[in-house]
């Protein structure tokens, strides 16, 4: 099925989207109006986060949320970027050795299938990147998508930073914890070029995009629940340079 969309660089069509976008994204975000709205947001200044609720199709979101809770490769991560004795500027858990999870026996078959499906959509097939690209009208580099799966426990947080890597223009986050409730902490905070701060609750099946600019900053507030949660998939997007 081909549906043309209005685009700053000319007319684009949905036949450019890999099949994984059509089968993974809630159909309400695959319309001409949705892509036009994404482009308008990207060009608006001053900047603010773009937040989608119920972004993924429900079956994929639930399957991936269950899979992240069962991953056997969570490892503690912390970063110190100042003096040696300063407290960590980031502390949470990250999923290491994801390829190991795709080997038979590491995950239940249904979780292994969900992980394969999600990774194909978010990174390997280019489906997510193509959807973003069609909206914002900027050519993105398919060889430079970064990926991190993260989880949090009490007090875990990330201090304010910028992610000013060469060519990076967006950070995007999938929030996949069905147990998360408003008030549990762990909000994404984004401070734009005018100094205004915005907060995003990491509610289940939320997808958030934030612009990466020299005069904007973002952080994650301390998470307040005792059990591991706030399951997040972060994917950095870089323009072609």
Describe the structure.
The chain is of the alpha+beta class and 241 residues long. The radius of gyration is 18 Å and the shape is globular. A hairpin with a 5-residue loop joins strand 9 and strand 10. The chain contains six helices and 13 strands. 25% of the residues lie in helices and 28% in strands.
Write the layout of secondary structure elements.
Elements lengths: L3 E2 L6 E2 L5 H6 L7 H12 L6 E4 L4 H13 L3 E6 L10 E6 L2 H4 L7 H16 L2 H10 L9 E7 L4 E5 L6 E8 L12 E4 L5 E4 L5 E6 L5 E4 L8 E10 L3
Antiparallel strand pairs: 1-2, 3-11, 4-5, 5-6, 5-7, 6-13, 7-12, 8-11, 8-13, 9-10, 9-12
Helix pairs in contact: 2-6, 3-5
Task: Give a summary of the structure in a few sentences.
The protein is of the alpha+beta class. It is 25% helix and 28% strand. The two termini are 32 Å apart.
């Amino acid at each position: 099925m081909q549906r043309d969309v209005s685009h700053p660089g000319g007319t684009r069509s949905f036949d450019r989207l890999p099949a994984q976008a059509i089968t993974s994204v809630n159909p309400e975000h695959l319309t001409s109006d949705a892509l036009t709205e994404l482009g308008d947001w990207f060009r608006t200044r001053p900047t603010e986060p773009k937040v989608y609720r119920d972004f993924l199709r429900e079956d994929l979101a639930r399957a991936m949320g269950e899979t992240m809770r069962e991953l056997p490769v969570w490892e503690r991560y912390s970063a110190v970027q100042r003096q040696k004795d300063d407290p960590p500027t980031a502390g949470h858990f990250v999923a290491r050795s994801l390829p190991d999870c795709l080997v038979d026996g590491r995950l239940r078959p249904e979780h292994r299938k969900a992980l394969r499906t999600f990774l194909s959509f978010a990174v390997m097939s280019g489906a997510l990147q193509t959807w973003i690209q069609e909206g914002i009208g900027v050519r993105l580099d398919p060889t430079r998508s970064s990926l991190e799966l993260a989880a949090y426990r009490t007090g875990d947080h990330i201090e304010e930073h910028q992610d000013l890597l060469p060519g990076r223009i967006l950070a995007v986050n999938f929030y996949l914890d069905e147990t998360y409730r408003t008030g549990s902490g762990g909000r994404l905070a984004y401070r734009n070029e005018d100094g205004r701060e915005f907060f995003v609750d990491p509610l289940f099946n939320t997808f958030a995009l934030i612009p990466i600019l020299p005069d904007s900053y973002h952080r994650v507030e301390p998470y307040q629940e005792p059990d591991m949660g706030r399951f997040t998939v972060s994917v950095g997007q870089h323009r072609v340079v």
